[in-house]
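Narrative of activities, Objective 1.

The group set out to show that a structural description can be obtained from nothing but a protein's sequence at a throughput compatible with the screening campaign. Below is one input-output pair from the validation batch, recorded exactly as produced.
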Amino acid sequence: MRRTTKSAVALVAAVTTMAALALVAAVPALANYPPPTLRLLCTAAANNGTLESTPLPPVCVLPSGQTTAPNNYSATIAVRKTGVAATITFAVTAGSLAPGLTMLGSSPSATSPVITGNPTKAGTFNFTIKATGGGLTTTLAYQITITVQGAPDQLVCNPAVNGGFLESGVCVLPDAILGQSYTGHLFTSHQAGGTLSVVSGNLEPGLVLPTTFTGSADVVSGTPTAAGVAAGNGFTVRGTGDQGQPLYQAYFIQVQPENQPLTVNNDGPNLSPGFAGQAGYTALFFVAGGAAPYTWSLVSGKFPPGLSLTTFSDPRDANDELVGTPTTTGTYTFTMRVTDYDGQQATQQFTVAVHPPLQVPTTTLPSGTVGVPYSTDLDNSAQGGPPPYSWFVVNNIDELTPGLTLDTTSPDFNNVLDGTPTQAGTFNFPMQVQDSFDNTLNATLTVTINP
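Output recorded for this entry:
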């Protein structure tokens, strides 16, 4: 027998202890993954803030306030923490809040503190906030504009004001046309003048923007010299309103090719058919040429009952989709008109046929007799949904009556049950019928075979 020496026992004990210590040391390291984070937020969802990243450094523009009643102000300093259990403290490290405003200094649960109070002085106030907790620190610059009365001046993007549509924070102005004079309005809410300059991106070639303006809006104008969208086109402006309030907005202008008349672009006057009582009908109207935004309208005739116009996706192509649940069968003819931003118009007549829904009202087939040739047309059991019909065995062909099979009479498919029955009884077998527009319906058919 091999002897275990005292030194060997000590060595084993030491190795075991080191392994245990290594395991204990590894557990906290695993527990701290992923590493803790702390971040100040500036989004519309978090605190109604707008993060202006041009020029650097970024500035979080918080909602504006005013000195006159009702002048109670409230704005959130949004924060997000991950893996930080400590109290989060907040401090203004540069600049100052508007007189009359104060900020909660800490947040034990890391819910966001609030800047609140009654501002007593008008102006634009810039300050930096530092959030600290759990050994982590994050800072962000902020800006609040206080006016004497009412909301501050701001750039307006509204179809009714300048034909613009706000898409993902970018004001998409009406299209320009290559080689034709263009005017795009950058309206302000106070309509009292100010200054603007392009701080990022580029105006379309041939267009210019004055740096100062009076009255309701600055104007992008000129004659575009390049069609399409070049890389980097689209531009962001920054400036001041009539009381020195900051103005900031990203814009985009699409330049369409010249000599492109407005036309209705479709595959013909017949739209997709509908089925009475069947939800989810959709038909799109397409346009070519002209300059967006476009608006569609009904000028004569009527839609199938249950259908109406809506905007499919791009708000600059209004009422370009016919949707709903048709309720009444028939053939409906109507005329649509599309109007572009420059006032060009085009019309097109359309037709929609609404069919009865596919049904199998008769599920009991004519009876037969053992040993006597049998034939019946399954189409006699179906109605609605435009023919021709196609029939399919749902589960297994062996479920058909013994001695009978499916045959075809064109243009239908598998529509004849025929053969010579070999067994008496009442037989039930599930079938699926499909119409010419791929609507399907399952039904269990029954046939009795007499001895």
